[in-house]
């Protein structure tokens, strides 16, 4: 029921989602391993934002999407496929064109804290211990086959 | 599985099943539009469901529940009664199907022995939260589900995940919520998975009753040799279950029995395919036996009355080579099959290991056994293993699970012997338990990097600040 995602390298952009009317995610800083950027692009308006998880604006936003937003868009395309991302953002991407180049929004502040806390909740799954008690309910969820 | 067995299986549609499923369908349609505004015909469907139980001890409760819900007073107890009725109907279908399968395979099954239900486990607030969310869903109907209604379950699910005894409910609700979220707003969808969502809703409501009535109970410990037949992999965005099917030969020389053992890991959606095998890595004996096709010697391994071994890796040692085809040939006939606990009786849970050989693969990829044709479920070949539809189509022998889905019997392959470029190859779903062995898959994995390691590093750095 949920289309499976494609495996991709997570080092640069560990978290991407299509949620709350935005393509949003978390981009690891290239220089400081303790710092992350929260980047988002709104569906429809394509308004974009990038800031640190403490809401400090990203220094790379000079009237155009910064490298974090570019990485976010590129990784989203790897994860979900171009069609799904373009459909969600409501943008026409001509064949061979770059998703980010087809967006015509401007910079508008957006809340970073909520995206960051969703990322932490996402990470928290890795800390849930495994169990060896049977879970018969998972028979309703066969593992997906290889995604093309 | 012989041609004559398959013929017997395909020839015997269980009596009464279409009528039972029609009653279930009536209830499921009511859930589509919501119990909050029941049209007359849907109220009649609830009545019909209740009516099927008129002569039983729960008949009165169900009749009352149907009447109350139709009048717009929708209390949890009424929903629970209706969910119980729906589950009982599907339980009866399950029992009839499994009896037919057992008869065709000449498989003997242990009888179910009711054990006293254990005490409630003190997650009362959380299960109450789950019941209340499921009630909201039922009132709104699938068509009325929006982001806010889905997100209302977040805290409950997070809480349930932290309680080991509530893992079944947590994993189920998490899977259901993710599906609903991906489909939001559901009102604009063309077609809904009506039966599926009603199945998930029903099971969740029953699991959320607190206590664990009808759930598997301890059946002591066992020692002996475990011969692996294959592994069935289940997965949604935040969970994966590796369920191993095998035959246990007890050390005391007792009768061999069909058993399962499973490891379920929590994960995120970006960990998928071969990378999921990294998550159960602490169960090294089990993974090594899967990857190297070896048996396992068990000492005092806990067993549940559902036929599930509760895996303790320190109570197992990897034994000698044991391929699933030899194991199936030598031990499947005569092994005692386990009973199904009452709560688990649903056609979706039917997954009986069989060996099929001597077939011709048809144009549709089905197996033709001398005129009797068994459809192959190639939708259940997990990306974390080497089995592909192409390999299955080139196969001459197959160890798999017989399932019942969409009103027909299907075979889910777990391992095949096939001829590829004039050479005989064997492949099974557990072959990559210690990492991919196929050069193409190794390359793909290297390209994707180590998702598990990256996210664990991020979790270690960011979660406890
Ligand atoms: Zn930035």
Terminal CA distance of chain B: 58 Å
- Provide mean pLDDT of chain A, rounded: 91
What proportion of the residues of chain A form beta strands (DSSP E)? 15-25%
Gyration radius of chain B, rounded: 23 Å
What structural class do helix, strand and pairing data of chain B support?
A: alpha+beta
Q: What is the domain tally of chain A?
A: 1
What would the keywords be for this entry?
heterodimer; A: alpha+beta; globular; B: 465 residues; OB fold (Dihydrolipoamide Acetyltransferase, E2P); seven-stranded mixed beta sheet; six-stranded mixed beta sheet
Provide a descriptive summary of the structure in words.
The complex is a heterodimer of chains A (148) and B (465). With 148 residues, chain A is of the alpha+beta class. Chain A has one domain. Chain A has helices at 67-80, 82-89, 113-124; strands at 15-19, 22-28, 36-42, 48-52. Chain A has a four-stranded antiparallel β-sheet with strand order 1-2-3-4, sandwiched between helices. In chain A, a hairpin with a 5-residue loop joins strand 3 and strand 4 (48-52). In chain A, helix 1 (67-80) crosses helix 2. In chain A, 43% of the residues are buried. Chain B is 40% helix and 23% strand. Chain B is an alpha+beta fold. In chain B, the strands form two sheets. In chain B, strands 7, 8, 9, 10, 11, 12 and 13 form a seven-stranded mixed β-sheet that branches. In chain B, strand 8 and strand 9 (367-369) form a beta hairpin. Among the domains of chain B are: 1-106, no CATH class; 116-213; 218-331, OB fold (Dihydrolipoamide Acetyltransferase, E2P). Chain B is built from 15 helices and 13 strands. In chain B, helix 5 crosses helix 10 and helix 6 packs antiparallel against helix 10 (194-207). At the A-B interface, helix 3 of A face helix 9, helix 10, strand 1, strand 2 and strand 3 of B. The structure holds zinc ion. Zinc ion is lined by residues 37, 39, 50, 58, 60, 66, 68 of chain A.
């Amino acid at each position: 029921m949920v289309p499976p995602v494609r495996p991709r390298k997570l080092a640069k952009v560990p978290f991407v989602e299509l949620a709350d009317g935005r393509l949003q995610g978390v981009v690891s800083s290239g220089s400081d391993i303790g710092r992350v950027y929260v980047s988002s692009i709104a569906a429809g308006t394509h308004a974009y934002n990038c800031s640190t998880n403490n809401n400090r604006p990203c220094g790379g936003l000079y009237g155009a999407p910064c490298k974090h937003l570019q990485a976010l868009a590129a990784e989203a395309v790897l994860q979900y496929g171009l069609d799904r991302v373009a459909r969600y953002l409501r943008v026409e991407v001509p064949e061979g064109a770059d998703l980010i180049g087809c967006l015509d929004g401007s910079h508008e502040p957006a809340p970073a804290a909520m995206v960051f806390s969703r990322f932490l909740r996402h990470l928290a799954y890795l800390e849930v211990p495994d169990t060896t008690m049977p879970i018969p309910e998972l028979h309703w969820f066969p593992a997906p086959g290889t995604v093309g | 599985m012989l041609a004559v067995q398959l013929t017997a299986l395909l020839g015997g549609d269980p009596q009464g099943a279409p009528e039972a499923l029609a009653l279930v369908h009536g209830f499921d349609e009511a859930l589509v539009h919501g119990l909050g505004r029941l049209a007359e015909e849907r109220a009649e469907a609830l009545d019909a469901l209740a009516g099927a139980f008129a002569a039983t001890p729960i008949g009165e409760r169900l009749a009352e529940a149907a009447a109350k819900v139709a009048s717009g007073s929708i209390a949890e107890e009424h929903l629970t009664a209706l969910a119980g009725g729906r589950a009982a109907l599907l339980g009866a279908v399950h029992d009839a199907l499994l009896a037919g399968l057992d008869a065709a395979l000449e498989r003997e099954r242990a009888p179910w022995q009711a054990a006293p239900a254990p005490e409630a486990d003190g997650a009362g607030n959380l299960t109450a939260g789950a019941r209340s969310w499921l009630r909201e869903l039922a009132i709104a109907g699938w068509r009325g589900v929006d982001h806010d209604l889905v997100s209302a379950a977040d805290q409950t699910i997070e809480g349930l995940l932290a309680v080991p005894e509530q893992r079944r409910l947590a994993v189920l609700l998490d899977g259901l919520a993710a599906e609903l979220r991906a489909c939001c707003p559901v009102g604009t969808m063309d077609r809904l998975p009506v039966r599926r969502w009603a199945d998930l809703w029903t099971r969740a409501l029953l699991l959320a009753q607190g206590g664990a009535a009808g759930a598997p109970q301890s059946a002591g410990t066992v020692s002996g040799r475990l011969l692996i037949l294959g592994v069935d992999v289940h997965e949604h965005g935040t969970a994966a279950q590796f369920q191993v099917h095998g035959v246990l030969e007890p050390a005391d020389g007792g009768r061999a029995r069909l058993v399962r053992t499973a490891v379920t890991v929590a994960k995120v959606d970006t960990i998928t395919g071969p990378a999921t095998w990294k998550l159960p890595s602490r169960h090294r004996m089990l993974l090594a036996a899967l990857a190297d096709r070896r048996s396992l010697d068990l000492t005092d391994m806990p067993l549940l009355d559902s036929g599930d071994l509760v895996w303790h890796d320190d109570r197992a040692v990897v034994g000698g080579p044991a391929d699933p085809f030899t194991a199936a040939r030598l031990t499947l006939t005569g092994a005692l099959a386990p009973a199904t606990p009452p709560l688990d009786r649903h056609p979706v849970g039917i997954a009986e290991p069989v060996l099929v050989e001597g077939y011709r693969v048809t144009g549709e990829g089905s197996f033709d056994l001398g005129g009797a044709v068994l459809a192959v479920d190639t939708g259940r070949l997990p990306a974390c293993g080497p089995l592909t539809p192409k390999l299955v189509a080139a196969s001459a022998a197959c160890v798999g699970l017989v399932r019942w889905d969409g009103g027909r019997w299907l075979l889910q392959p777990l391992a095949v012997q096939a001829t590829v470029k004039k050479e005989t190859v064997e492949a099974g779903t557990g072959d990559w338990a210690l990492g991919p062995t196929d050069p193409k898959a190794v390359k793909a994995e290297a390209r994707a990097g180590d998702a598990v390691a990256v996210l664990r590093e991020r979790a270690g750095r960011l979660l406890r600040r």
